[in-house]
Amino acid sequence: MEITNSIPVWLDKDHPNFLRWERARNISLERGKFVKQVLEQNFEPINLSVLDLGSGEGGTSKILSEKNFVISLDINFIRLKRQKENFNLGKLLQADAIQLPFSDSTFDLIIIQDVIEHIENLNQLHSELLRVLKEDGLIYLSTPNRFSIINFLSDPHWGNPFISILSRNIIKNIFIRFFRKKERSRNDIPQLLSLKTIRKLFSKDFEIKLMTDFSVDELFKENKGIVWSDFHLKLINIIKSTKADRIVKRISNNHFGFVNKYLTPTFYFIMKKNSQ
């Protein structure tokens, strides 16, 4: 994110989203543990060369670096500095996701955790991912669902209704212009992606697997690395108190149909690069 008046927006205590972002920072390690759990449902994440792309607070890099070689990459220097201070991570790199400073076929695994919606040039990102991934390399991708009714009621980034379906230009020129003026200089304004968009972007070159079933099970086991917004936490409590969690578990699935198109709030994917 851009820095405004020497203070990053996400560290500004007067910002309406400060508590949401602070909670996300505080559970950074828990989020990393959840990523590791998702990976373990598909393979053993050991002795891999890993790129944590848009690594944020660094919790995922910290967890995966215990048994792998991990490079933590972020475009924001302040975030990388915080990673060094909080986790003493050694392999830190400031760079742009669409201009990766690595040779071809460098990584076994790339982590893209709640980052892709902040990137404008998705085709260039796709090209770079293909280039730096090894043959049969893997991607962990998580991102909020543009057409989820849950996100429509409360956007995961802004906390407001309706924003989730808006384009980046409308968010910037209308919502930010009139309601979040402090963020006018941001260059990472999120635009949520639909399941259709993600499949169109990746299906030609990757085998795509959704992990909705596992994430729903973990959600109702009170996994602390999945949810941190007040709206979503309250919604989960309501679902559990009314015993509706049984219904949610019953209808959740890993298919590319109605449930994941319009209900699932966050996509979790494991994607394997096709052999050339």
Automatic annotation (TrEMBL):
Domain (Methyltransferase type) ranges: 51-140
Keyword Repeat: no
Pfam families in alphabetical order: Methyltransf_11
Keywords attached to this entry: Methyltransferase, Transferase
Gene Ontology biological-process entries: methylation
CDD domains, per the entry: AdoMet_MTases
SUPFAM superfamilies: S-adenosyl-L-methionine-dependent methyltransferases
GO terms of molecular function: S-adenosylmethionine-dependent methyltransferase activity
This protein's name: SAM-dependent methyltransferase
Organism (species): Ignavibacterium album (strain DSM 19864 / JCM 16511 / NBRC 101810 / Mat9-16)
Species classification: Bacteria, Pseudomonadati, Ignavibacteriota, Ignavibacteria, Ignavibacteriales
